[in-house]
Amino acid sequence: MIIEEVSKSFGDFRVLNGVSLAIHKGEFFSLLGPSGCGKTTLLRIIAGFENPDSGKVTFDGADILALPPNKRQANTVFQNYALFPHLSVFENVAFPLRLRQVPKPEITSKVTEYLKLVQLENHGHKKPNQLSGGQKQRVAIARALINEPRVLLLDEPLSALDAKLRQHMLIELDQIHDKIGITFIYVTHDQQEALSVSDRIAVMNQGNVLQVGTPHDIYESPATDFVARFIGETNLFDGTVASAARLDKPEPEFMTELDIKELGRIKVTTVDDVKPGQSVSFTIRPEKILISKEKPATKREDINLFQGVVDEPIYSGFQTKFYVKVKDGVVIRIMKQHATYSDEGPDIVWKDSVFLSWSANDGYIVEVKP
């Protein structure tokens, strides 16, 4: 599927600003962004529920914008399920086939097949009000898939579910995608959902696509300050390039020193050929920072080392998040994973004096600013 320069306004409000995307056949592709960023409007344009002001949407080279929704071979799963309350689970799933006047034996066979796919083969006789939220969503997925569309559009399908059920359904959704192999386009504002199941993600904000890439690319190499902040947690600072030296490696890579007002001088490796005096933004993820009460013994020249005081430790069982005050009261976030059993509880507590360290390879220059 190719989306080319799609724009859409509602009155004076510009929802989409010339969005262009190439979505590969069979991939699990997520549109990720905050509420109001335009992701659902883009999904509705693909589905045929909205018309763009300009641009093209093509399936296999054919422009589909002139086609009604039922001719686009793209079915939608909504967050509110949209099931018929007076029909049984079986009849809800069978409904698209009855509209096409498919023979009864084929309807029975296909509905049975798709109920089995979503693990509801023993619930066909029930009405929607007898089902849990997760079961209702699975009925909606089966009904959307039974016409064998080329694309399944999912508009925040798990947002009405509680956290544990949402995680369970996310795994099931990924397994269904793996079994049937069609293209999934998934709209969500939940970063963890998108990172967990997507082949690729488009991060959107204010009607623009800011970055398209794999979950690893989006998390480890954010293209903008917004992406760095929106995807997971991070520590983000503005800085100025003090020096940059080419490293002796086959691919271009530079050891760069930055002057950051809140931290002082730090080292970061980058593939960007930055120049002294340029303004940049720098990020370091909380889980990449080591925290200890003893000064690290390493003599490596690429290690950044700071001292601070624990302002707030937050214990979460599998990890502890530390808020540590360093120079001039600036707070850095650190996450420490608990991989082994401890008899005595956390070894770092409130008001402890600590050392923070990270490798130059673990930081990242997000933006080179004009």
Mean pLDDT across the residues is: 92
CATH topology-level name of the largest domain: Rossmann fold
Shape: globular
CATH H-level name of the largest domain... which superfamily?
P-loop containing nucleotide triphosphate hydrolases
Q: Major beta sheet, specifics?
A: 6 strands, mixed
The number of domains:
2
**Spatial order of the strands forming the largest sheet:** 6-7-8-3-9-10
Q: What's the tally of helices?
A: 8
Overview of this protein structure:
By secondary structure, this protein is α+β, with helices and mostly antiparallel strands. It folds into two domains: 228 residues, Rossmann fold (3-Layer(aba) Sandwich); 137 residues, OB fold (Dihydrolipoamide Acetyltransferase, E2P). It is built from eight helices and 20 strands. The strands form four sheets. A six-stranded mixed sheet has the order 6-7-8-3-9-10, with helices on both faces. It has a five-stranded antiparallel sheet with strand order 13-12-11-14-20. A five-stranded antiparallel sheet has the order 15-19-16-17-18, with no helix packed on it. Helix 2 packs across helix 3, helix 2 runs parallel beside helix 4 and helix 3 crosses helix 4. The model has no long low-confidence stretch (mean pLDDT 92).
Blueprint (SSEs and pairs):
Elements: E1 2-10, E2 13-22, E3 28-32, H1 39-47, E4 54-59, E5 62-63, E6 74-77, H2 89-99, H3 104-117, H4 133-145, E7 151-155, H5 163-180, E8 183-188, H6 191-197, E9 200-205, E10 208-213, H7 215-220, H8 225-230, E11 235-246, E12 254-260, E13 264-270, E14 279-284, E15 290-292, E16 303-315, E17 319-325, E18 331-337, E19 353-359, E20 364-369
Parallel strand pairs: 3-8, 3-9, 6-7, 7-8
Antiparallel strand pairs: 1-2, 1-4, 4-5, 9-10, 11-12, 11-14, 12-13, 14-20, 15-19, 16-17, 16-19, 17-18
